[in-house]
């Protein structure tokens, strides 16, 4: 005689145990009172539904890593941004000093702070 499966719980019914379709009276009464085996916590179906007891067989899925990506922004293309980033510090420092010198000369000539501010100008193109 071969091993049968309980139609309610999914447990094995070994020869000499249980009835033809049910392992014991508990399973039979639950089935006859129309209980859903997926909602009864101790059944195989419920454990499968909630992924219990499968940790040895299945590895956890890997999550995606964020990949760094460079994009152009308004007012500067990607080439401009990368060229400024790759400049040597000495070149950048020289440009900064030159801008400071130009600003001081502008103020000495009688200019104002407002006229030399670097506000973006909107073009109608």
TrEMBL record:
**Gene Ontology MF annotations:** mRNA binding; structural constituent of ribosome
Swiss-Prot/TrEMBL GO biological process terms: cytoplasmic translation
Report the superkingdom from the record: Eukaryota
Tell me if Aminoacyl-tRNA synthetase is a UniProt keyword of this record.
no
Is DNA-binding among the key words of this record?
Answer: no
Q: Where is this region: Disordered?
A: 105-125
Q: Known InterPro entries for this protein?
A: L24e/L24_sf (IPR038630), Ribosomal_eL24 (IPR056366), Ribosomal_eL24-rel_N (IPR000988)
Annotated Large ribosomal subunit protein eL24-related N-terminal domain ranges read 1-57
What Gene Ontology cellular component terms go with this record?
cytosolic large ribosomal subunit
Q: Which Pfam families match?
A: Ribosomal_L24e (PF01246)
Point to the regions of Polar residues compositional bias: 114-125
PANTHER family the UniProt entry points to: 60S RIBOSOMAL PROTEIN L24, RIBOSOMAL PROTEIN L24
Q: Which family does it belong to?
A: Belongs to the eukaryotic ribosomal protein eL24 family.
Question: In its UniProt entry, what is this protein called?
Answer: Large ribosomal subunit protein eL24
